[in-house]
Amino acid sequence: MNINDLQPELAKPYLKLLTEACVYLNSNKGSLRKDIWDYLNNKYTNSIDYRNFLLAIRRFYLDGKIINSEGMYQMHPEVINEVREKTPTPAFKKSSDGKPVEKNMFISFLKGETEGVE
User: How far are the Cα atoms of 3, 84, 118 from residue 80, in angstroms, in the given order?
Assistant: First the structure.
């Protein structure tokens, strides 16, 4: 494993988080990396590492999951549909009263709370 690569166990949670941020920011041309980071850092304070965030963007760009057009990033439409169908993040999943679900296994995983995480 290259020291500059994202750890394999972090790829899936970061894909979901980046997708959530891109959908929330919802710009037709994409979103700046800074704006994506600001959204995630504000929403998941102390849960996300900036280095892993950058490595995730790099990995998903090389895999074709993120589209970069002149510094504006957006998720590939197929990735958005895949993430929504599989395991939603709080921005995608709402409780019965319409509020975001607080407990999310991916955020728990990023915080190091492995109890209940597969």
Answer: 28, 6, 22
